[in-house]
Design a protein that fits this description.
globular, 22 strands, ten-stranded mixed sheet, alpha/beta
Length: 556
C-alpha cells in the first residue's frame, strides 16, 4: 500500500508534536541527537518533507528516503538506490555509512569536475549530491515509530491493540483464531500475515508474512482509520531480526514452536530461536504485558527467560497433562469433524477448573493452536466461559487443514512446508484413516536445500503413499529439487513413492489412485494462489486444482 501525504512536515515538528505512545521519548531523543550531529548547513531538522520512503523508485519530490542495509550488503546497489533517490528527496537518512559507498570511486563526470583536494573522494561525492545525506546507523531502532508519527500528523487515529504470534508453525491459524474470537464478541478485528491482510471479511493477499517497516505501519494506520480495535499479526523471524515490527503496539505475544526452516537466512537453530525471542523483549516492544508460550516445545526456554526478564505476565499452554501449564488439554478426542477437548485452567469459573470444549478444527496440532488463541483472548480481557461458548463457531484458516468436499475419500489442503509440520499433519490424520494415507508435496526452490530429504522422509514416515512434485521451484529446475528430496531413500520407500514434477498432474494422480476410505493431503502451498516458476507467478490454487480433479474423476 502506497500513500501520499498532502501536508508537509519536518522532523522537529514530529519530535515536538507526536504523542509519547506514537514516538517514544527514547526514540525522540535518538532522533534529536542524530539531527543535531548532522551538517548544520543542511538544517535537516527543519527541512519540510512529505512522505517517508524505503524504495528509491517510489520517492517523489521532497520525500525522505531511508536507505537500509540490504541482507546481501551489496554496496553497488545501495549506491544506486541513494543516487536515484537523491534526485528528488528532501534528504536521505542512511543506515549504511554513506562514505563507504563512494570511498572506492574515482572521479566521475556524474558529479561534475571536483577539484577540492582538501576533502576525500567520498566527501566530495556526497557534497555534490542534490540533497543532504545523514548517517543513522541505529535507524531501525525507531524507524517504525518515526513512520507512524508521520502518518499521524496531521490526522491522528486510535491504533488497534496488537496480538503477535511467532513460531515456525501455527502463526496463521492462531492469528486468524484470535481475530475470529474477538470479532465474535462484537469487537472489530483484523489480521496481518501469510494468508492476507485486512479486516476478516476483506483480506488482501500478502507477499510477505511480515512486510517492511513502512508497509507494516501504513497497514496499522489504515486499520486504525477503519476502526479495528484488535489486530492479530504473524511475526516472522526475518521481520523480528530486521526490526520491521519496531513501533508496533504489541500487547500480547505468542510463541508456538520451532523446527527447521529459514536456515538459508539464519546461521543455525540457535540464531533462529534468538530472532523469535525478540518478540518477548520489552526493550523492543515496550507495550507488552503478556507472553503466551508453548512449553511443550524444546526451544521454549529462551522465550520464557526473555519474557520473565522483561517482567511480563507469562502464561503457558501444553498438550501434556502432567505439565503444570496455565492452559492444558487434558483430553483430546479427534474426528474428521473436529476435536472434543478437555481444558484445565486456573482461569475457569471457580466452580470448575476443567471445561469441555468442542472445536471444529481438524488435527491434534490445532488443539495447541486453539489453546494459544484462547489464552491470548483471555489476556485481552474476555472471560473464558464466553470464549469457550464461541469456539464452535470458529473456522480454520484457508489452506490450513482445509477439507475439499468429495463423495468419498477425504481430501485435505494444508500449508505444511517443513518436516515437522508435515509430520504433525500426517500424524493427526492417520488416526482417522480407515484406508491408506497419501501425501502430495514438494520443496521450494532457492531455499534451504538441506530440508529437502528431510521433507521426503517426514512424508514417508507418516504416509502410506507419497507423491513428490513441484512446489514453488522459483529459479531452480524442479527435477533437481526432486532429486535432492530422494537422497537416502531406500528401495522400500521408492516402492511407495510416485514422482511427478507437474503439480497439477500429481494432484490428479492422487485423486484417481486413492480409494474410497483413503485420505489424501496436498501439502506445501495451502492458501497460495500461484506457483512461482522462473520469476513468473502462474495462477495455481491447490484447492481449486483439487476440486477440478475430483470433478473430472466424478468424485463430486
Amino acid at each position: 500500500m502506497t500513500t501520499s501525504s498532502a501536508h508537509a512536515v519536518n522532523l522537529q515538528q514530529l519530535i515536538e508534536d507526536s504523542r509519547d505512545d506514537i514516538l517514544s521519548q527514547a526514540s525522540a531523543q535518538q532522533l534529536s541527537k542524530i539531527i543535531k550531529c548532522s551538517d548544520p548547513s543542511s538544517d535537516v531538522a527543519k527541512t519540510d518533507f512529505y512522505d517517508i520512503r524505503l524504495d528509491s523508485r517510489q520517492v517523489s519530490s521532497n520525500d525522505v528516503f531511508v536507505l537500509l542495509q540490504s541482507w546481501s550488503k551489496d554496496k553497488q546497489k545501495s549506491r544506486d538506490y541513494l543516487l536515484q533517490a537523491a534526485e528528488k528527496a528532501a534528504f536521505i537518512l542512511s543506515e549504511v555509512d554513506p562514505f563507504t559507498l563512494f570511498d572506492d570511486e574515482s572521479n566521475n563526470s556524474e558529479f561534475g569536475d571536483i577539484q577540492d583536494h582538501t576533502q576525500s573522494t567520498a566527501q566530495q561525492r556526497l557534497a555534490a549530491l542534490p540533497c543532504p545525506v545523514v548517517y543513522v546507523p541505529t535507524i531501525r531502532a525507531f524507524l517504525g515509530e518515526l513512520i507512524q508519527a508521520r502518518l499521524q500528523h496531521p490526522q491522528p487515529v486510535s491504533l488497534p491493540t496488537v496480538v503477535a504470534v511467532t513460531g515456525t508453525n501455527g502463526k496463521t491459524t492462531i492469528s486468524q483464531l484470535v481475530a475470529q474470537l474477538i470479532q465474535l464478541t462484537g469487537v472489530s478485528s483484523a489480521v496481518m500475515g501469510t494468508a492476507g491482510n485486512g479486516k476478516l471479511d476483506a483480506l488482501v493477499q500478502a507477499s510477505h508474512t511480515t512486510g517492511d517497516a513502512l508497509a507494516v505501519q501504513q497497514f496499522l494506520y489504515q486499520m486504525g482509520q477503519q476502526s479495528a480495535e484488535v489486530l492479530a499479526l504473524e511475526a516472522s523471524s526475518h521481520g523480528l531480526d530486521q526490526q520491521r515490527l519496531q513501533g508496533m503496539p504489541i500487547k500480547v505475544a505468542i510463541y508456538t514452536n520451532l523446527s527447521r526452516d529459514h536456515l538459508d537466512y539464519h546461521a543455525d537453530m540457535a540464531e533462529y530461536a534468538a530472532a523469535k525471542a525478540k518478540l518477548f523483549d520489552k526493550r523492543h516492544f515496550p507495550k507488552l504485558t503478556h507472553a503466551i508460550i508453548n512449553i511443550d516445545d524444546e526451544h521454549a526456554k529462551i522465550m520464557l527467560d526473555t519474557a520473565h526478564a522483561s517482567g511480563l505476565k507469562v502464561w503457558t499452554y501444553s498438550l501434556q497433562t502432567e505439565k503444570n501449564a496455565n492452559f492444558v488439554a487434558t483430553k483430546i478426542l479427534p474426528s474428521l469433524e473436529g476435536v472434543n477437548i478437555g481444558l484445565r485452567t486456573q482461569f475457569a469459573d471457580d466452580s470448575c477448573d476443567n471445561m469441555e470444549v468442542i472445536s471444529p478444527l481438524l488435527g491434534r496440532f490445532n488443539v495447541a493452536n486453539l489453546l494459544a488463541a484462547v489464552a491470548a483472548v483471555t489476556a485481552l480481557g474476555v472471560s473464558l466461559e464466553r470464549i469457550v461458548a464461541l469456539i464452535p463457531q470458529l473456522q480454520g484458516a484457508i489452506g490450513r487443514m482445509q477439507r475439499v468436499p468429495s463423495n468419498d475419500g477425504c481430501f485435505i489442503v494444508d500449508y505444511a512446508h517443513t518436516p515437522d509440520a508435515l509430520s504433525q499433519v500426517l500424524d493427526s490424520l492417520s488416526t482417522h484413516c480407515a484406508g491408506k494415507l497419501w501425501a502430495v508435496f514438494g520443496c521450494g526452490g532457492d531455499r534451504d536445500a538441506g530440508k529437502r530429504p528431510l521433507m521426503a522422509q517426514a512424508g514417508l514416515a507418516g504416509a502410506d503413499h507419497v507423491i513428490l512434485t513441484a512446489d514453488n521451484p522459483r529459479s531452480e529446475d524442479p527435477n533437481a529439487i526432486l532429486q535432492d528430496m530422494q537422497a537416502g531413500m531406500s528401495a522400500e520407500q521408492y516402492q511407495r513413492t510416485h514422482i511427478e514434477p507437474a503439480r497439477q498432474k500429481a494432484i490428479a494422480y492422487a485423486v484417481t489412485q486413492a480409494g474410497a476410505d483413503d485420505i489424501v493431503v496436498i501439502a506445501g502451498k495451502g492458501h497460495e494462489t500461484y506457483q512461482d516458476i522462473n520469476g513468473v507467478r502462474h495462477d495455481f490454487d491447490d484447492s481449486i486444482v483439487l476440486q477440478q480433479a475430483l470433478q473430472q474423476a466424478k468424485r463430486i
